[in-house]
Amino acid sequence: MSIKAFFLDFYGTVVHEDGEIISKICNQIKDNSKTEATLTEIGGFWWKEFSNLFQESYGETFRTQRVLETISLKNTLSNFGSTLDENILSELMYNHWMQPSIFDDSLEFFKQNNVPVYILSNIDNFDVNTAIAYHKLKVKEVITSEDVQSYKPRPEMFEKALKLCNLSKDEVLHVGDSLSSDVSGAMNVGIKSVWINRNNKEFKGKDEPNYTINKLDELLKFEMLVKN
């Protein structure tokens, strides 16, 4: 196997996810609405609303991540009787997407890596490109859900990335933290997957990854597979 490019998910893989911001928003909803629901129940409802919209969004029905986030948050506020403004709360999320904290091991990976990196992210162009510029990361190309009008695990993003890098499926590895979007999505189109499992989660996926790592800089060991 000759690896000539890495396909990397971004949020949760290179930079921190938005879990802390989501918790803060759920706390505000609970305090404002005086609901008896727990924070877990509020967050769970929000996630279910978002997931339903997410799964239906592709092709002619595609809507950007910002739009889906705002609609799902508005539905959540309504469900729990909160009078908060979804647009104001959403700004907290957008600020994180544009300036997320980066993992130390990601900085080390980008410092040492010599293999072309393609970012594949279920996010809007502006947010991920702003975040990449903020951390001054060197990447070959960025392919987003907005570019292909669909979200991982659907195949369009992976197929677009293969066309851009002009490589075969056997010459790339896709790396991500999501078993459903990243591992299953890549494997469904015949690309080998690497699951980054920083918190040693129990595997509960449908498709088992080809490789598992705990930190992104462990990916550097795959450079030995590169042929000049």
From TrEMBL:
GO molecular function, a single term: hydrolase activity
Matching InterPro entries: HAD-like_sf, HAD-SF_hydro_IA, HAD_sf, PGP-like_dom2, S-2-haloacid_dehalogenase
Pfam families: Hydrolase
Top-rank lineage group of the source organism: Bacteria
The entry's keywords: Hydrolase
The keyword Hydrolase belongs to this UniProt entry's keyword annotation: yes
Record NCBIfam families: HAD-SF-IA-v1 (TIGR01549)
Protein name: HAD family hydrolase
Organism expressing this protein natively: Rossellomorea vietnamensis
